[in-house]
């Protein structure tokens, strides 16, 4: 009976270990990046970026979505321009959507022409690449969702791409006024990856470029329970395309967020602390991958917030 019981217990222990193995294997090492990237999204619609007052007293509002012109469906800015050129009539019927309501507005062709510069079908910005999975060639970046400033919502997009960006100048952060990176997107270097998802913890997609020599080695992911208050490093780019490590101090940790303070004198002198465009910058502690920068404190720009990498990966597309 004792032998039978020992056999059963050994079997259960072995089964438990086998069941745990896939979970442990999923927490694999990732390559911490820190490169500045240009992010471009091709939107599903064309919309207005500014309020416009027509001659008849009708207002077009920023965020109005152009659905059709002269009964022809509109999805891209190129379709708007093509239809404008081909139309022979002087009056154009524009079907637009505003706050879930559809309406038709008659606009003179000559009045519509100068408005074309206020039409947009794509959005872009600058952020920081967080990680690349060396096995699946998937990446994550930004650490937070892209919100379109015109519609004040996550943009609906049909496709998206990321590119390397080169930092040309820094506007320093000061209390009450966040600084930012002045960058140029390097389209000539080719697309680095596609964008599959834009969610609460960043953008995710497939890395389509080759994994270049000189990238950091993959690092083990640190669990939130292992993150300690104390010294850490921030990987980011503040000049050209060079990724540098700067000293920070983690000041508070919980399961879903952590807080930190920039202690590196060089970074504070050059940037004033955290900048717009640093979102997604990796945080490293004791040679392990901790998380990604998400926010700065406007009144104290040397202080910031981040999410543990384990939390960011929960929103990664499966």
UniProtKB/TrEMBL annotation:
Q: Which Pfam families match?
A: Peptidase_S55 (PF05580)
Please state every residue range assigned to the domain named Peptidase S55. 96-318
Protein name per its UniProtKB record: Peptidase
């Amino acid at each position: 009976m004792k032998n039978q019981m020992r056999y059963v217990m050994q079997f259960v222990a072995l089964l438990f270990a086998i069941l745990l193995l896939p979970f442990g294997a999923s927490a694999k090492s990732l390559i911490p990046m820190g490169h500045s990237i240009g992010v471009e999204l091709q939107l599903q619609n064309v919309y207005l970026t500014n309020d416009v007052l027509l001659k008849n007293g009708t207002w077009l509002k920023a965020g109005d979505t152009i659905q059709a012109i002269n009964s022809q469906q509109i999805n891209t800015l190129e379709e708007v321009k093509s239809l404008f050129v081909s139309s022979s009539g002087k009056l154009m019927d524009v079907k637009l959507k505003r706050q879930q309501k559809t309406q038709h507005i008659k606009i003179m062709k000559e009045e519509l022409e100068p408005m074309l510069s206020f039409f947009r079908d794509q959005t872009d910005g600058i952020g920081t690449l967080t990680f690349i999975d060396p096995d699946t060639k998937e990446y994550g970046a930004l650490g937070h969702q892209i919100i379109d400033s015109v519609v004040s919502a996550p943009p609906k997009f049909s496709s998206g791409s990321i590119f390397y960006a080169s930092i040309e100048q820094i506007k320093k952060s000061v209390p009450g006024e966040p600084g930012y990176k002045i960058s140029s997107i390097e389209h000539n270097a080719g697309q680095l990856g596609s964008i599959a998802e834009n969610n609460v913890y960043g953008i995710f997609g497939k890395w389509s470029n080759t994994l270049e020599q000189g990238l950091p080695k993959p690092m083990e992911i640190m669990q939130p329970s292992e993150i300690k208050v104390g010294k850490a490093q921030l990987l980011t780019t503040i000049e050209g395309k060079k990724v540098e490590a700067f000293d920070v101090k983690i000041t508070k940790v919980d399961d879903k967020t952590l807080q930190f303070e920039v202690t590196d004198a060089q970074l504070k002198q050059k940037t004033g602390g955290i900048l717009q465009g640093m979102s997604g910058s990796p945080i490293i502690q004791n040679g392990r991958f901790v998380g990604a920068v998400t926010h700065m404190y406007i009144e104290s720009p040397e202080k910031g917030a981040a999410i543990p990498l384990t939390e960011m990966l929960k929103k990664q597309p499966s």
